[in-house]
Design a protein that fits this description.
The protein contains 9 helices and 8 strands. It is 38% helix and 22% strand. The longest helix has 15 residues. β3 and β4 form a beta hairpin. Strands 1, 2, 3, 4, 5, 6, 7 and 8 form an 8-stranded mixed beta sheet that branches. The chain is α+β, with helices and mostly antiparallel strands.
Length: 213
């Protein structure tokens, strides 16, 4: 992820210093996302991937901008109950357009609807994270704003044909597009990819500082 390294260089340098502090600890990523796995490797040399099996239905009282942090916490706790001594990391990403949460598309038509809705407009990509260990849990989220350039129907259909939209909130991944097609007005690239490195670094440092490591 060269763009990530370029834009978040200082953050990644700080994250990389966690590797020594996490050495010997059991670290678990409660997500099957290959993108999150790649980002977590910036701060932990050795970790397990154990995807959480949770119901992603949201209670009515959870506002759209808090949905990803709520779901990240639920996923984290689901795995932490099985591995209470491990440092468990949960994450979730939502795309929000005018207070509507755009999840993973159900089919081609749903993906086309989402991409058409996002085309030429601003939206928020919110990644929530949670860390749990020995009964203690901390969570956070980042809310960057960004947008798409205008996408024509041919571009949308070609992207859907790749199959890439179907495991991604909002039916797209920023890493799948050419530079300039998707822009970030504020916030971090790593957040849009699905694991806000700066926020996660702070949470992990807080846990390790409490333990005196």
């Amino acid at each position: 992820m060269q763009d990530l390294i370029k834009t978040d260089k200082l953050t990644l340098e700080r994250a990389s210093r966690l590797k020594a502090r996490l050495a010997g600890r059991e670290v678990i990523l409660a997500s099957a996302s290959p993108r999150r796995k790649e980002l977590l490797a910036c701060m932990a040399e050795d970790f397990k991937v154990i995807p959480a099996d949770t119901d992603e239905a949201l209670p009515e009282y959870i506002p759209s901008r808090m949905a990803s942090e709520y779901l990240a916490r639920e996923k984290c706790l689901a795995v932490a109950r099985q591995y209470p001594e491990a440092l468990v990391i949960g994450a979730d990403t939502t795309v929000v357009m005018e207070d509507e949460i755009l999840g993973k598309p159900e089919d081609n038509e749903d993906a086309r609807r989402m991409l058409s809705l996002l085309s030429g407009r601003q939206h928020s990509v919110i990644s929530g994270i949670a860390v749990s260990c020995r009964g203690k849990t901390k969570s956070a989220s980042d809310v960057p704003a960004g947008g798409f350039k205008k996408l024509d129907s041919k571009t949308i259909d070609a992207y859907i044909e790749t199959g890439s939209p179907f495991d991604k909130a909002g039916a797209y991944g920023i890493q799948d597009f050419e530079k300039g097609e998707v822009y970030i007005e504020q916030g971090s690239y790593s957040n849009v990819v699905g694991l806000p490195v700066e926020e996660l670094t702070l949470l992990l440092e807080a846990f390790l500082n409490t333990e005196g490591r």
